[in-house]
Design a protein that fits this description.
By secondary structure, the protein is mainly alpha-helical. 64% of the residues lie in helices and 0% in strands.
């Protein structure tokens, strides 16, 4: 899964570079959002892989505990939070661990439905209550259950900021040696008085670090 998404991300970056090369600025600014979304999903999967590995190792301890173990709260709530937002291929081995330990009944795979995710979610709801699952999945109150903040940011549905899009476009142009007028793009994408719209900003050594700091 990670290799497939890395390949997909690289392809998306090449597509954006080609759009910049062909001076299709508007298309590149739209397409770069797909780059950012894919990069965030990769980060989210890395976080979730860590949490699911922890859950698989401690499944017997969790089975015996009446309350949510304090040092497992972030992992459990984050898995619940992500269950409605991403297709968690990483949880297939975890589902098998839970079945082997008698925590779940075997469920036949159905293409695209990811029944193992639904089963794990149902298990946690049965173990710790429907209120826990509902609140951990709710953006407005999930902090109560210590859902990982980086994971929330990676799975956010908000459009990326113009500064982040401009930074990513600039990075892609440099990566693929594409001549690109970053200053003109900044003038179009950012407020008039933004520091990056100053003449010569993108020719200075401080340009990239300054843009990152301004986000």
């Amino acid at each position: 899964m990670r290799n497939k998404r890395n390949i997909n991300l690289a392809q998306l970056r090449r597509e954006v570079a080609e759009l910049l090369k062909n001076n299709k600025q508007e298309h590149a600014r739209i397409r770069v959002e797909a780059v950012l979304r894919e990069a965030n999903l990769l980060k989210a999967y890395d976080i979730l892989e860590l949490f699911t590995e922890m859950l698989a190792v401690r499944v017997q301890m969790i089975e015996k505990s009446k309350d949510t173990p304090p040092d497992m709260l972030e992992a459990l709530s984050s898995i619940v939070y992500a269950s409605q937002r991403v297709q968690l291929h990483h949880l297939v081995p975890l589902h098998e661990v839970l079945v082997c330990n008698g925590c779940l009944a075997p469920s036949p795979a159905r293409g695209g439905d990811f029944p193992e995710m639904l089963a794990i979610r149902a298990l946690l709801a049965h173990k710790y209550g429907k209120e826990f699952v509902a609140e951990a999945a709710d953006d407005s109150i999930c902090r109560k259950w210590q859902v990982n903040e980086n994971l929330r940011n990676c799975l956010a549905v908000e459009a990326p900021s113009p500064e982040l899009k401009l930074q990513t476009l600039s990075d892609i142009a440099q990566e693929h040696n594409v001549e690109w007028d970053a200053h003109s793009a900044a003038m179009d994408m950012l407020p008039y008085n933004h520091p990056t719209t100053a003449p010569g900003y993108f020719n200075s050594e401080r340009s990239l670090s300054g843009l990152q700091a301004s986000r």
